[in-house]
Amino acid sequence: MRILEAIFLVFINPLFYKITLTASTPLIFAALGGVYSEITGVVNIALEGIMLIGAFTSVVFTWLTGNVWIGVFMAIVSGVALAWLHAWGSIKWAGDQVVLGTAIILIAQGVTGFLMEPIFGKPGQTDFVGKIEEIKIPGVAKVPFIGKIIGELSPMVYIAFASVVFSWWLIYKTKLGLRMRSVGENPEAADTLGVNVYGIRYFGVLMSGVFAGIAGAYLSIGEVGHFRELMTGGRGFIALAAMILGKWNPVGAMLVSILFGASSAFANQLQSSSLIHVPATVKPLFDMIPFILTIIVVAGFVGRSRPPKADGIPYEKEA
Amino acid sequence: MNKKIWSILVPVVSVIIALLFSAVIIVLIGKSPFEAYAALLRGAFSSKQAIADTVIKTTPLILTGLAVGFGFRAGVFNIGAEGQMVMGALIAAAFAGNFGSLPPVVAIPLTMLIAMSVGAAYAAIAGYLKAKTGAHEVVTTIMLNWIATYFASYMVTGPLAVGSGTPKSPEIADSAQLPILMKVGAIEMSSGIIIAIVAAIFMYILLNKTVTGYEIKGVGFNPYAAEYGGISVGKNVVLAMAVSGALAGLAGAMELMGVHHRFLGELSGGKGFDGISIALIGQNNPIGIIFAALLIGALRTGSNEMQFIGVPKHMVMIVQGIVIFLVAADRIVRTIMIRKRVNA
Q1: Which of A89, A96, A237 sits opposite B142 (nearest CB)?
Q2: Which of A39, A98, A243, B217 has a CA-to-CA distance to A269 between 20 and 30 Å?
Q3: Is any Cβ of chain A less than 8 angstroms from the Cβ of B276?
Q4: Contacts within 8 Å (CB) and 24+ apart, B288-294
Q5: Which residues of chain A neighbour B160 with C-beta distances below 8 Å?
Q6: Chain-chain contact of B280 with A99 (C-beta, under 8 angstroms)
Q7: Residue B322 and residue A288: Cβ atoms within 8 Å?
Q8: Nearest CA in chain A to B152
Q9: Min CA distance, A222 vs chain B (Å)?
């Protein structure tokens, strides 16, 4: 059975684990963004659009300044700006959050496509503008197997995992986190207790802009160093699914993101296997795997999960 | 003001605000919005050719608009029109390549039927999962879109592939192609537009004159009350998704049978997504949807002309995005209008 042998070889190859980590990173960031927004009660399917804006802005500013970290910072700024638009429509004006989310995705796709030509002089794809350097940990790099996985990684990977720890602490161990969760579960009660429901919701949605913006920056200047139209390719929605399966918990969202990352790393590695020949035409079938997995997950075949009670419901103070 | 007036006023004002916003962006990139919009109008309506092109672009948009609008009426948000359209056209293309021996009276309805059934079945997956497990249709239909896209790309580079260059399927039989209504230069306008308008009438009758329509609207309006009144929510959710998917599949069939005559790699190009804007602008009303589709169709056609004077055609997406935003948060528009009234 050459196919089983090929699968086995994928699993003992450190490269598989390294690609799993890098493929999971943007999903972890974006899924965390989703967690912040939804635990305060605002559904945010705009993640895909916010990522796209982040990916674009980071490339523009890296290109202008030559500094990738300014690029990352501006990705956050643009992510927050777009998230603010979502917050404004869904919190202040009590609009339908799902429909607003699709509007924001369209706006992001439109704006990034629109500005490509005036800024970079050509549509479709920008030139290489620079990339966040991988950091080499000298001691670890020499360790067999492990060294090949984490010896030389993008700092963004570490930032992603640190963000999970930070978010878990913020949401479950601080007063602010308690308020966020109470606003998502029962805004009326929270309001009665003097919690500023609108303020907390704005905070949640804007934080989703921070993380989805970083997720986008990682896709462009973190991985390939350029921007391509619609380069997020549905990752925002996969992150959304990761958040749902992860039961609206930062750690759960991270674990599912890693599962999705592993599924694409697996497809990627199996195709480059020398043991079996995978024709290029079959590639799209492999690309389908994370999406099929998402449906199975969202349909609750892997265990039901319950969203925050007030998720998706605009809060209106009685006059 | 009563509900009817608002339901026309909100989308109209939203479109105006969106065009004003876009004008600002056009100024920012150093172009004249007047010239841009003039080019847009010219590109969409200035000649027989332009009008035929606009009608061709509008045809599938009416159908995806109806698909999304029908779903909305039943309380389901079908973001999957894109995938249903692709799957419908793809499978119909695989069959209709072999319809050469059938006369058009059989081949044409059969091809449409295949596309509609596939679209319906594909959408029903999301409906079934929503009814059975509570999986949100927004997430499942989006995932089904990606799966359809990759599946289509596999089919047209693999089993169905013909020739080299752009991935494409073989041409469908002549007998399965829609009759041409008008030929202007190289542009052939098929009778698809008539089918699209018939579909709108069908949706109007189904929703307003039948028991099924009443039940579907009941579920959309208040699922709890519907359940209490003896209407099965689950059954109607699946049914609504299936009808919605059938309309999207029909949109795919129109592109296949009336425009390209084969499945091309990039058949849909966002038409399913456009359906969302159209349903919202048309306020889920079949007649409103026809006009909304014409608006988006004209914007899409005209934007090519606009591109010639250096304004990227992506402007249309920005316009659509802002319109959807304002219709979803319709209180923004209402507040603006009421304040104007008070000031006046």
Answers
A1: A237
A2: A243
A3: yes
A4: B288/B7, B288/B8, B288/B11, B289/B62, B289/B65, B289/B66, B289/B69, B289/B200, B290/B62, B290/B196, B290/B197, B290/B200, B292/B11, B292/B65, B293/B58, B293/B61, B293/B62, B293/B65, B294/B54, B294/B58
A5: none
A6: yes
A7: no
A8: A284
A9: 24
Give the closest-approach CA distance of A221 to chain B in angstroms.
Answer: 23
d(CA A244, CA A305): 7
3-state secondary structure of B136: coil
Tens of pLDDT along B47-57? Answer: 999 999 999 99
> Where does residue B71 rank: exposed (0-12), middle (13-18), buried (19+ CB within 10 A)?
buried
Instruction: List pLDDT tens digits, range A175-191.
Output: 999 999 999 999 999 99
Q: Alpha-carbon distance A49 to A33, whole Å?
A: 12
Q: Which helix (H) or strand (E) holds A283?
A: helix A283-287
Confirm if A312 and B153 have CB atoms less than 8 A apart.
Answer: no
Listed by start position, the domains of chain A span 2-304
Q: Report the gap between the CA of B319 and the closest CA in chain A (Å).
A: 8
Task: Please name which of B274, B207, B250, B222 lies closest in space to residue B70, comparing C-alpha atoms.
Answer: B207
DSSP state of B173: P
Residue A244: what pLDDT?
83
Closest CA to B316 of B107, B16, B18: B18
- Tens-digit pLDDT profile for residues B154-207: 999 888 888 877 888 999 999 999 999 988 888 889 999 999 999 999 999 999
B10 contacts in chain A (CB < 8 Å)? none
Cα gap B266→B268, rounded to integer Å: 6
For domain A2-304, the question of CATH label 1.10.150 is answered with: no
Cβ separation B318–A111 shorter than 8 A? yes
Among B174, B179, B173, B175, smallest CA distance to B106 is for B175
B308 in A contact zone (CB under 8 Å): no
